[in-house]
Amino acid sequence: MLHPHRFRPCHRLHSPADFERVYRGGKRAGDGLFAVNALVNELGFARLGMSVSTRTVGNAVRRNRVRRIIREVFRGCHAELPGVDLVVTSRPGARDAARPAIVTSLERLIGRAVPLATPGTASQ
What we know:
By secondary structure, the protein is an alpha+beta fold. The chain has helices spanning 16-25, 54-57, 60-77, 99-117; strands at 27-30, 34-40, 47-51, 84-90. The chain has one domain: Ribosomal Protein S5, domain 2 (2-Layer Sandwich).
């Protein structure tokens, strides 16, 4: 039996063209830790892309920690998300942020970016 909150390959953005499409056409919400870009897709389920750079977060250990937390938050909420592509970009504040601060930030930003990108829900 598959774990219901598994981060499957079909839930990931893979190609640079996918990232570029979200950056160019998506809506953005951000704070001191992250920027979240969201764009509606035609797949009917949410997909996640991450851009966690050495410049903003630091060495591989720190980058992988931040990526694990981002994936964890996405797995927890992706069943409730409409068909959107999300790109989470790290900002310098994420370098030393505690796990609860990262989780709170991501939940809030996803909650702000998705309605902006989804037609018909931004005005509600």
